[in-house]
Amino acid sequence: MSEKAQVVLAMDERMNDESEIELVHHNSRLGSADDDDGVAGDRDIGLATAEAKPELKRPPMYKVLLLNDDYTPMEFVVHILENFFSMPREKATQIMLVVHSEGKAVVGIYPRDIAETKSEQVNLYAQENDHPLMSSIEMTD
């Protein structure tokens, strides 16, 4: 008798159509009473295992803060909020007044890389325009 191949599928009942299946192939020297020649033959035993789908977590979020100073014109702060944070003029004016009266304000909440980029862009733009306006980031609670 020739070699026999067995494929064993080990599937979890919860597995859905999107799960990936990996075929693991094993060769073993097993004898069997079914063999005509009585000689142990090679048997291929395939084992399909379901790869668990990794649970994805949302990235930690960071607040972009605009800090008040005594020298940056209010109109420049409104300009920053409109251009870097896509705020309409009315909302930008409201946020600018919060920065002016409270010393700082949250102007956006983003994943870390985006928050860092926006903060650096604001700081660089303010510096290029000779304003001491500063932006920073901090992790949300």
Verbal overview:
The chain has 141 residues and is of the alpha+beta class. It folds into 2 domains: 5-50, no CATH class; 61-139, Ribosomal Protein L30, Chain: A (2-Layer Sandwich), CATH 3.30.1390. The chain has 3 helices and 6 strands, in the order ββββααβαβ. The strands form 2 sheets. A 3-stranded mixed β-sheet has the order 1-3-2, with no helix packed on it. The chain has a 3-stranded antiparallel β-sheet with strand order 5-4-6. Helix 1 crosses helix 2 (89-102). It is elongated. The protein starts with a strand and ends with a strand. The model is unreliable at 1-33 (pLDDT under 50).
Secondary structure: elements and pairs:
Elements: E1 5-10, E2 21-30, E3 41-50, E4 61-67, H1 74-84, H2 89-102, E5 104-111, H3 112-128, E6 134-139
Parallel strand pairs: 1-3
Antiparallel strand pairs: 2-3, 4-5, 4-6
Helix pairs in contact: 1-2
Question: What labels describe this entry?
Answer:
3-stranded mixed β-sheet, disordered N terminus, 3 helices, alpha+beta, 141 residues, 2 domains, 6 strands, elongated, Ribosomal Protein L30, Chain: A
| Largest sheet composition | 3 strands, mixed
For the termini, the CA-CA separation is 69 Å
Write the CATH architecture name of the largest domain.
2-Layer Sandwich
Give the overall pLDDT as a whole number: 79
Q: What would you report as the Rg, rounded to the nearest angstrom?
A: 32 Å
Helices, by number, come to 3
Count the beta strands: 6
Oligomerization state: single chain
Strand order of the largest sheet: 1-3-2
CATH topology of the largest domain: Ribosomal Protein L30, Chain: A
Helix content: 25-40%
Principal-axis shape: elongated
Strand and helix order: EEEEHHEHE
Which CATH C-level class of the largest domain is it?
Answer: Alpha Beta
Count of individual domains: 2
